[in-house]
Amino acid sequence: MAPTEARPQPRRRADAERSIARIVAAARSSLSRDPDATVDEIALAAGVGRMTVYGHFRTRPELVEAALAEALRVGEETLSAVDLTGDPREALARLLASSWSLVSESSALLAAAEKVLPEGRVRELHGSAADRVEALLGRGQADGVFRTDLPMSWLVNVIQHVLHGAAEEVRAGRLAEHEVARVVTRTVLSMLTDRPAH
To answer: Which residue intervals define the domain HTH tetR-type in the entry (predicted)?
Structure first.
Protein backbone atom coordinates (compact mmCIF):
# COMPACT_ATOMS: atom_id res chain seq x y z
CA MET A 1 0.00 0.00 0.00
CA ALA A 2 1.46 3.33 -1.07
CA PRO A 3 2.20 5.82 1.70
CA THR A 4 -0.42 8.52 2.14
CA GLU A 5 0.58 11.74 0.42
CA ALA A 6 0.78 14.84 2.55
CA ARG A 7 -2.07 17.21 1.98
CA PRO A 8 -0.76 20.72 1.33
CA GLN A 9 -4.15 22.46 1.42
CA PRO A 10 -4.20 23.50 5.10
CA ARG A 11 -0.74 24.99 4.75
CA ARG A 12 -1.74 26.80 1.55
CA ARG A 13 -4.81 28.15 3.34
CA ALA A 14 -2.69 29.35 6.29
CA ASP A 15 -0.23 30.99 3.89
CA ALA A 16 -3.11 32.70 2.10
CA GLU A 17 -4.57 33.96 5.38
CA ARG A 18 -1.20 35.39 6.40
CA SER A 19 -0.86 37.03 3.02
CA ILE A 20 -4.33 38.56 3.27
CA ALA A 21 -3.62 39.83 6.79
CA ARG A 22 -0.34 41.41 5.61
CA ILE A 23 -2.06 43.07 2.64
CA VAL A 24 -4.95 44.40 4.76
CA ALA A 25 -2.50 45.75 7.37
CA ALA A 26 -0.49 47.47 4.64
CA ALA A 27 -3.67 48.90 3.11
CA ARG A 28 -4.81 50.19 6.47
CA SER A 29 -1.45 51.85 7.12
CA SER A 30 -1.03 53.24 3.59
CA LEU A 31 -4.58 54.58 3.30
CA SER A 32 -4.37 56.15 6.77
CA ARG A 33 -1.44 58.20 5.47
CA ASP A 34 -2.81 58.79 1.98
CA PRO A 35 -6.47 58.11 1.03
CA ASP A 36 -5.39 57.91 -2.62
CA ALA A 37 -2.72 55.23 -2.11
CA THR A 38 -2.66 52.91 -5.10
CA VAL A 39 -2.78 49.13 -5.19
CA ASP A 40 0.87 49.17 -6.33
CA GLU A 41 1.86 51.25 -3.28
CA ILE A 42 -0.08 48.97 -0.97
CA ALA A 43 1.47 45.88 -2.55
CA LEU A 44 4.94 47.37 -2.07
CA ALA A 45 4.19 48.13 1.58
CA ALA A 46 2.94 44.55 2.06
CA GLY A 47 6.02 43.09 0.37
CA VAL A 48 3.99 41.30 -2.32
CA GLY A 49 3.32 41.73 -6.02
CA ARG A 50 0.22 43.52 -7.27
CA MET A 51 -1.06 40.26 -8.79
CA THR A 52 -0.95 38.72 -5.31
CA VAL A 53 -3.13 41.58 -4.07
CA TYR A 54 -5.57 41.07 -6.93
CA GLY A 55 -5.56 37.36 -6.22
CA HIS A 56 -7.24 38.13 -2.89
CA PHE A 57 -9.06 41.37 -3.67
CA ARG A 58 -10.58 41.74 -7.10
CA THR A 59 -10.75 45.54 -7.01
CA ARG A 60 -9.25 48.45 -5.08
CA PRO A 61 -12.64 49.30 -3.49
CA GLU A 62 -12.81 45.72 -2.17
CA LEU A 63 -9.38 46.19 -0.59
CA VAL A 64 -10.33 49.59 0.84
CA GLU A 65 -13.43 48.07 2.42
CA ALA A 66 -11.37 45.27 3.97
CA ALA A 67 -8.95 47.81 5.45
CA LEU A 68 -11.76 49.94 6.88
CA ALA A 69 -13.55 46.89 8.26
CA GLU A 70 -10.36 45.77 10.02
CA ALA A 71 -9.78 49.23 11.53
CA LEU A 72 -13.37 49.29 12.77
CA ARG A 73 -13.05 45.77 14.18
CA VAL A 74 -10.01 46.79 16.22
CA GLY A 75 -11.77 49.97 17.27
CA GLU A 76 -14.81 48.00 18.35
CA GLU A 77 -12.64 45.92 20.68
CA THR A 78 -11.38 49.10 22.33
CA LEU A 79 -14.76 50.81 22.59
CA SER A 80 -16.60 47.75 23.85
CA ALA A 81 -14.31 47.81 26.90
CA VAL A 82 -15.32 51.38 27.87
CA ASP A 83 -17.44 51.58 31.02
CA LEU A 84 -20.74 53.17 30.00
CA THR A 85 -22.51 52.73 33.32
CA GLY A 86 -23.40 55.52 35.72
CA ASP A 87 -24.07 59.16 34.85
CA PRO A 88 -24.63 59.38 31.06
CA ARG A 89 -22.54 62.56 30.84
CA GLU A 90 -19.54 60.93 32.52
CA ALA A 91 -20.02 57.76 30.46
CA LEU A 92 -20.10 59.81 27.26
CA ALA A 93 -16.92 61.63 28.30
CA ARG A 94 -15.16 58.26 28.72
CA LEU A 95 -16.45 57.07 25.35
CA LEU A 96 -15.33 60.26 23.58
CA ALA A 97 -11.87 60.06 25.13
CA SER A 98 -11.44 56.53 23.77
CA SER A 99 -13.06 57.32 20.42
CA TRP A 100 -11.10 60.31 19.20
CA SER A 101 -7.74 58.58 18.78
CA LEU A 102 -9.41 55.80 16.81
CA VAL A 103 -11.08 58.41 14.63
CA SER A 104 -7.75 60.17 14.21
CA GLU A 105 -6.21 57.00 12.79
CA SER A 106 -9.16 56.13 10.58
CA SER A 107 -10.26 59.53 9.23
CA ALA A 108 -8.04 59.31 6.13
CA LEU A 109 -9.06 55.68 5.73
CA LEU A 110 -12.69 56.73 5.97
CA ALA A 111 -12.08 59.39 3.32
CA ALA A 112 -10.68 56.69 1.03
CA ALA A 113 -13.74 54.51 1.65
CA GLU A 114 -16.18 57.35 1.03
CA LYS A 115 -14.59 57.89 -2.40
CA VAL A 116 -15.09 54.33 -3.60
CA LEU A 117 -17.86 52.70 -1.54
CA PRO A 118 -21.58 53.42 -1.59
CA GLU A 119 -22.66 55.70 1.26
CA GLY A 120 -24.95 53.04 2.63
CA ARG A 121 -22.07 50.58 2.88
CA VAL A 122 -19.88 53.00 4.84
CA ARG A 123 -22.75 53.63 7.27
CA GLU A 124 -23.35 49.91 7.59
CA LEU A 125 -19.72 49.29 8.53
CA HIS A 126 -19.98 52.02 11.19
CA GLY A 127 -23.17 50.53 12.62
CA SER A 128 -21.85 49.28 15.96
CA ALA A 129 -20.15 52.54 16.91
CA ALA A 130 -23.22 54.59 16.01
CA ASP A 131 -25.52 52.20 17.88
CA ARG A 132 -23.39 52.52 21.02
CA VAL A 133 -23.54 56.33 20.94
CA GLU A 134 -27.26 56.31 20.17
CA ALA A 135 -28.02 53.97 23.09
CA LEU A 136 -26.04 56.17 25.47
CA LEU A 137 -27.74 59.33 24.22
CA GLY A 138 -31.12 57.65 24.58
CA ARG A 139 -30.35 56.79 28.20
CA GLY A 140 -29.27 60.38 28.84
CA GLN A 141 -32.49 61.67 27.31
CA ALA A 142 -34.54 59.30 29.43
CA ASP A 143 -32.68 60.57 32.52
CA GLY A 144 -33.40 64.17 31.52
CA VAL A 145 -29.77 65.22 31.10
CA PHE A 146 -29.56 65.32 27.28
CA ARG A 147 -31.71 67.41 24.99
CA THR A 148 -34.64 65.81 23.17
CA ASP A 149 -35.58 68.61 20.74
CA LEU A 150 -33.25 67.45 17.93
CA PRO A 151 -33.35 64.20 15.89
CA MET A 152 -31.21 61.38 17.30
CA SER A 153 -29.55 60.74 13.94
CA TRP A 154 -28.50 64.40 13.81
CA LEU A 155 -26.98 64.28 17.30
CA VAL A 156 -25.01 61.12 16.47
CA ASN A 157 -23.73 62.61 13.21
CA VAL A 158 -22.69 65.88 14.90
CA ILE A 159 -20.66 63.91 17.47
CA GLN A 160 -18.93 62.01 14.66
CA HIS A 161 -18.14 65.27 12.86
CA VAL A 162 -16.71 66.80 16.05
CA LEU A 163 -14.42 63.78 16.48
CA HIS A 164 -13.26 63.94 12.86
CA GLY A 165 -12.76 67.70 13.18
CA ALA A 166 -10.57 67.19 16.24
CA ALA A 167 -8.44 64.67 14.35
CA GLU A 168 -7.99 67.19 11.52
CA GLU A 169 -7.03 69.95 13.96
CA VAL A 170 -4.38 67.74 15.54
CA ARG A 171 -2.94 66.82 12.12
CA ALA A 172 -2.84 70.50 11.16
CA GLY A 173 -1.01 71.37 14.39
CA ARG A 174 -3.78 73.66 15.64
CA LEU A 175 -4.76 71.45 18.58
CA ALA A 176 -2.43 69.60 20.96
CA GLU A 177 -3.17 65.90 21.46
CA HIS A 178 -3.35 66.24 25.23
CA GLU A 179 -6.11 68.84 24.81
CA VAL A 180 -8.35 66.81 22.52
CA ALA A 181 -10.32 64.84 25.10
CA ARG A 182 -11.19 68.01 27.04
CA VAL A 183 -12.08 70.05 23.95
CA VAL A 184 -14.17 67.31 22.36
CA THR A 185 -15.99 66.46 25.59
CA ARG A 186 -16.84 70.08 26.43
CA THR A 187 -17.99 70.74 22.85
CA VAL A 188 -20.23 67.68 22.68
CA LEU A 189 -21.68 68.01 26.18
CA SER A 190 -22.46 71.70 25.66
CA MET A 191 -24.29 70.77 22.46
CA LEU A 192 -26.23 67.96 24.14
CA THR A 193 -27.24 69.92 27.21
CA ASP A 194 -27.99 73.28 25.59
CA ARG A 195 -31.59 74.35 25.93
CA PRO A 196 -33.40 75.79 22.90
CA ALA A 197 -34.08 79.52 22.90
CA HIS A 198 -37.70 80.57 23.48
So the answer is: 17-75
Q: Are 121 and 154 in contact (CB under 8 A)?
A: no
Q: Which of helix, strand or coil describes residue 106?
A: helix
> CA 150 to CA 167: how far, in whole Å?
25
Q: Which residues lie closer than 8 Å to 84 by C-beta, 6 or more apart?
A: 91, 94, 95, 132, 136
Residue 169: strand, helix, or coil: helix
Structure confidence by residue, pLDDT tens digits, 116-135? 888 778 777 766 778 889 99
Q: Are 109 and 32 in contact (CB under 8 A)?
A: yes
CA 196 to mean position of chain CA atoms = 32
pLDDT of residue 197: 45
Rounded-to-integer distance, Cα 33 and Cα 18, Å = 23
Q: What does pTM read for this prediction?
A: 0.70
* Mean pLDDT for the chain overall: 86
First to last CA, the chain: 92
CA separation for the pair 22, 29 (Å, rounded): 11
